[in-house]
Amino acid sequence: MIALTVNGEERRLDTPARTHLADALRDGCGLTGTHIGCEQGVCGACTVLVDGKPARSCLLYAHEAAGKPVTTIEGLDDDPVAEALRAAFSRHHALQCGYCTPGMMVTARDIVLRLGAVDEARIREELAGNLCRCTGYRGIVRAIAEVAANRPAAPAAAPRREAPKVAAPAQAPAPAVELPNRIEHRETLSVPLPAAWAILSDPAKVAACLPGAVLTRHEGALLEGRFTASLGPISASFAGQGEWACGEHAGSVRGRGRDGANAAEGMVEFSLSPAAQGSVLDVVLSWRLTGPLAQFSRPALLRGLVAGLADQFARNLERSARGEAPAKRLSIWALIRAWLTRR
């Protein structure tokens, strides 16, 4: 038995544990406005809101949405932004067969509320995960731009755990854009704080401890390099720039890069504190991935990869502090350990 909150109503569904949220919504709740297309997370037709954020309901098991509010296209009937978008879609001929429209509308509403007035290039980037075979996207983009132009930017997100206080970078400040994905990770290190901080305060040593990272330039607060990640047959190598900031046993780095049509932006905030048998490393990782690659990744799998990277980084830091060579590739055991600790 799975308990869901769908469009503000409590639903109890007697479905198998491996039932996808899309099937639960359509077959269990009778909400057939959620369309199923590719069933691989690529087309975006099944997009709904889970905990207020767009999610591919064909990639989520129904039980993963338990305890989180789920909103389908039917739940947006009285929503003023969705109402404005429906009218704009009609004016700009932004639909033909209509199969992609429910998922497109959910994503469009998120763009309007989260970003406010933005240019058409940004709207097209945000729509990368919603495919339409009919319209050529022009009407869709124009409809969203029209509604977004009359909306203020979304209000600031609710306060989260206070980030480590660090000195502001001396140059090339990063844009203050909310990154939608976030993981907080804590590791207990077997090395004392001074030895650990000697590594964490040096960008070159940090890069050496992070599997897949290569630092090609460090000049003041500016960093340049690339980051390569692979999981099974999926691989990407992002080249770009970042900004480094370092304070009293705390710091941050924010960067952005591209790999062809894929783009990534991320931020790592870290702090180090003493412990009885060594030290404690707290890491907050935030990221945003756009382009085709983002659509092939199950959300839980991507989060598991990030958590595995943090775990492997901690182990490499310990090795480096002991004078040993850090591992160059992400260990499958780090992924398994990170997955188990997050269950």
Automatic annotation (TrEMBL):
GO terms for molecular function: 2 iron, 2 sulfur cluster binding; metal ion binding; oxidoreductase activity. It holds the Pfam family Fer2. The keyword Iron applies. It comes from the Bacteria. Residues 1-76 form the 2Fe-2S ferredoxin-type domain. Keywords: 2Fe-2S, Iron, Iron-sulfur, Metal-binding, Oxidoreductase. The keyword Iron applies. PANTHER family: OXIDOREDUCTASE WITH IRON-SULFUR SUBUNIT (PTHR44379), XANTHINE DEHYDROGENASE IRON-SULFUR-BINDING SUBUNIT XDHC-RELATED (PTHR44379:SF8). This is 2Fe-2S iron-sulfur cluster binding domain-containing protein. It comes from Rhodovarius crocodyli.
